[in-house]
Amino acid sequence: MTGGRGxxxxxxxxxxxVVRLGLxxxxxxxxxxxxxxxWQVVRSADLVGRPDDPLLxxxxxxxxxxxxxxxxxxVLATSKRDKNREPYRVYPSMAVAPVIGYASRQFGTAGxxxxxxxxxxxxxxxxxxxxxxxxxxxxxxxxxxxxLSLSLDLQKEAVRLLGKDRGAVVMLDPRNGEVLALASTPTxxxxxxxxxxxxxxxxxxxxxxxxxxxxxxxRAIQGRYVPGSVFKIVTxxxxxxxxAITPDTRFTRQPQAEKNGLLVSGFRxxxxxxxxxxxxxxxxxxxxxxxxxxxxxxxxxATGGENLADWAAKLGFGGPIPFDLPTxxxxxxxxxxxxxxxxxxxxxxxxAAYGQAETLATPLQMAxxxxxxxxxxxxxxxxxxxxxxxxxxxxDVGPAVWREVMSPEIAAEINAAMVRAVEGDEGRLFxxxxxxxxxxxxxxxxxxxxxxxxxxxSWFIGFAPADDPQVAxxxxxxxxxxxxxxxxxxxxxxxxxxxDTVAK
Amino acid sequence: MDPIVATIWLIRILFLGLLYLFLFGVVxxxxxxxxxAAREPVTALGRLIVVASEVEEPALGTVFPLDAVATLxxxxxxTIVVDDGFASTEHAVLSFRGRAWYLEDLDSTNGTYxxxxxxxxxASAAFxxxxxxxxxxxxxxxxxx
Amino acid sequence: MTAANFVPTGIGIxxxxxxxxxxxxGLLILVGIALTxxxxxxxxxxxxxxxxTLVVQAAxxxxxxxxLGALGVAHLAQVLAGRRTDQVLLPAVAMLGGLGxxxxxxxxxxxxxxxxxxxxxxxGVQLLWLLIATGVISVLAIVVRSDTWLRRYKYTWAAAGxxxxxxxxxLGEESNGALLTIRVGxxxxxxxxxxxxxxxxxLAGYLSxxxxxxxxxxxxxxxxxxxxxxxLLPMVAMWAIAFGIVVIQRDLGAxxxxxxxxxxxxxxxxxxxxxxxxxxxxxxxxxxxxYRLFPHVAIRVDIWLxxxxxxxxxxxxxxxxxxxxxxxxxxxxxxxxxxxxxxxTLPIPAIHTDFPLAALGEELGLIGVLxxxxxxxxxxxxxxxxxxxxxxxxxxxxxxxxxxxxxxxxFIIAAGNLKLIPLTGITLPFISYxxxxxxxxxxxxxxxxxxxxxxxxxxxxxxxxxxRLDRLLHRSAA
Lengths: 504, 145, 478
Prior knowledge:
The structure holds three protein chains of three kinds. By secondary structure, chain A is α+β, with helices and mostly antiparallel strands.
């Protein structure tokens, strides 16, 4: 036999391999098609309108953004044109800087300018059909103006009252959730960051970023603070709501514990002695009036960790609050504990019940707690933007109930106790300046003890008029000392101003 | 709807539609092609193509699908009839056994040639090889698909 | 007279006589109508955006007409040549090329970046290369009637390829962090594009010759049945070359393309899954080593894993491409209406070379992307059909390899655009801007067309290398 032919090439036809190769490539291209479908259809809505969408960036450079105005029509943000006829942003008042943020050519956007970037630059039109058409419209962008529920007057006053301190004020209308003031100090010069002059903008931005007081942090919604005694209102809602206590409940251990400390699982919880009432067991309204820590520790233990965590969650703790701006989550505990509700043990629960331990809350969260009591147990969704409008028309953002937290009866009990905390013979000593002259006022102070020897945070939450609540407030002054000394007077002044001006 | 917008939409959708019309046309051609391929006997193990012929049967370009055994010769009872005076009545057998093709000369007068060389009895063949019987030259190829 | 003296006549080429190509003509007419509609869509949108008036007009009727005219001439040439070549490939390629031309027409014209570019603009240069590519396809499809020049000189081709590769290593100019371009006088080109064709030619020759030996199973490694060790060497060499391309040339895409085509062809030739397994293991090992050792590889992989980690830096282009896809949605914005410019520049700098699919995805939508993917599948199908019907192993492997080169390259860059695999800087065949890419792919299509003709000169009788058994027998006989 010549040539030595290997028969193998005839034995395994190449055709089979070719067919399999074809199938593999077919599958590969099917995966490509799936990938395209994923990005173009499934994820399309997430990606379009991202702050780094070039459509928005292009719009930011060439489009005159919509104006932002307060509830009285005062301009909070508007646009001017530079010498090249390119628009830039102007902010008349520094008091609103943490809320409005900025829209800068160099440094992007922040605050409402960021959250409503698409609407302000007009990329996302009011309704989807319009959006479709606007792709070919001759003026492709239809910027919308924003109207806020904010009152520039109250906002300025809040910032003035906070003065040089770091702090925050949240005021809202408990009946409809409209935010009236959302102050955070220190503020910053947003106009300089948005300046058309690149060097001015760069210098302003560098200053703000380097500032150790962190003006870019909106303390009202992003700052998380130990709440101290203002958290007792949350414990009240949980204890009364779950039926663990009634307004008449007295704890017989309480007077003695004020002297010797309350022994919980071998751990001693101490409280200052209340000179007027220390010798007798208090009922619930008295405990609120004199802010008795022992009473609330015992009430918290009676309520149980799970109930406390659940009722706090109803009020918004444990997650971001749905709002026009990004909010930080408030918490009653770090979680992970086995005691119930995520508490580590009953010591933590007892301390958390009067606002210490691992409890942290944003001023907005505490304002919502006050507003819920004021609104007879109904928690309205907080909102800042009440109207989007342009020449084609307007869309109003109406009030919406977020949650029904508790019954009107229980809310009325807490309301009455909070009135005593401001108006009662003993209560008024703890809350000087909180009373709105001539108006029945409800409230609660807080003095948040911090680790070490740092001055405590000063808190106040409240509402007025207590018999027909129109405004709820939370005031926080970082390291402001006791609630009585710093926060209460600010709250009283602001609520009075609201009732004198805006509400009239 | 704004007539301007409507017009542009129409043109856009028309373009996309035409893209698909084209794809549809292509797929129709491909399907026709595949159907034609499917009509070819799928059992064929290979095929013989006439690459040179000086006689009328078989003519140049004729394709013979191959089964496991194919006989070549002048007699009409052969699988492949080679109507040539130079071919014997029973000239050669091309068979597929196990994993290989084998070409066997049946003691023909003029011999059977594999790639231009006469074979001595049995020889193994492979695709691409050329087989000559009489004045007809075949090429052994793989079946269509 | 014996039959052995018989001299065959009329083998192969018969007298040349025109043969009508109805299907090709029909499909080309459809291509013309569709591209005209696309051009009108672009032109009308552009006019509207410019001055707000509705003027139904083509974007650039002259360039479109020149391109369609060239296609007509190519068709006519094929008809006159009278060969029975494939009738689908040219229209499919013409459609992709036309889409590329429309895209270049639509992009800012100042990105051309070459000596001619400044005067011709992006679309002008692309049209020029499309014309040359059409010419190359036609000439190859008509003239190539024998493949001996390819199969006989496989080692010469391999040597030429290696020289080309070394030239790139030494003379390559850096662009986007990769050594891709060789510049000679005013001309510049990307040799890897040509290299991929050479690779396929060499592999087809090598594999068809050594197929029997590669199928031989004489080494066992655990559950894997391996061929004799010496025949594994090309696989290792191939892996080393791919790795070298990654390391020295920093061209991830080309390395991936070469290695994938190599593995697929070995599989087709041997039907041994063990080769693919070994190859994939080598690929994973090499990829992992490259990831750990070379920052330019690590960056690409990290971007792929989470581009949103650095949205304004490393992840910028990838995110912008994804946003472009997302803006397109199902139906797209329409040609000319997408791709917003910021400060006079596009958000994706390399859109005409690396991200044409993202651009088309935005303006033609998911529908358009699916059509483009479909067109690539058609080209692959034709190539594989030609392979399946080929007369011998060399041609089958050559056709399959050529189809693979187009298909795998399209897959790698499309998957990179869609964040399915790390992004690499290779071109989208027939659509991307660039002469090297268009010419190399024209070579591929031209060869496929030539191979599709069943009347091609018969392949030479196989010259089989002897198996070891044979050699043994021969030695004992001697």
